[in-house]
Specification:
Blueprint lengths: L1 H8 L6 E8 L3 E8 L13 E6 L3 E8 L2 E14 L5 E3 L7
Parallel strand pairs: 2-5
Antiparallel strand pairs: 1-2, 3-5, 4-5, 5-6
The structure holds zinc ion.
C-alpha cells in the first residue's frame, strides 16, 4: 500500500514513509515522515543523534486523478552530541 502511494505520487525519496492517507473532500491528505540515520554534524563534523520530529510542514503536491494532494510531512531532527547544534532531515521533495 505504502509503495503504491509513493509510486503513484512519484516520490522517489526512500526516506519518506507514509503514515496515513485520507480524503478531506476537496483534496486528499497524506501524513508522512522523513527519517534516516543521523548524519555527521554540519558544524563540527561530530556524531549527531536522532532527536524528535518537527511539526508537520504542509506541502501542496500534484493533482492525482483530478484531486489536489496535500502532504503533511514531519521531518526528523538531529542533535549533535558534541556541540549540541540541531539539524533537520532533508529531502529532494521540498527545497
Ligand atoms: Zn556538532
Amino acid at each position: 500500500m505504502e509503495l503504491f502511494i509513493t509510486k503513484l505520487l512519484g516520490i522517489e525519496d526512500q526516506n519518506i514513509k507514509i503514515d496515513n492517507l485520507f480524503d478531506a473532500g476537496t483534496h486528499k491528505e497524506i501524513l508522512a515522515h522523513l527519517d534516516y540515520d543521523a548524519p555527521p554534524c554540519p558544524a563540527c563534523k561530530g556524531q549527531m543523534a536522532k532527536y524528535d520530529f518537527q511539526k508537520p510542514s504542509k506541502i501542496p503536491y500534484l493533482e492525482t486523478a483530478g484531486y489536489k494532494t496535500l502532504i503533511r510531512l514531519k521531518k526528523r531532527r538531529f542533535r549533535c552530541k558534541g556541540c549540541r547544534k540541531m539539524a533537520v532531515a532533508e529531502t529532494s521533495l521540498v527545497q
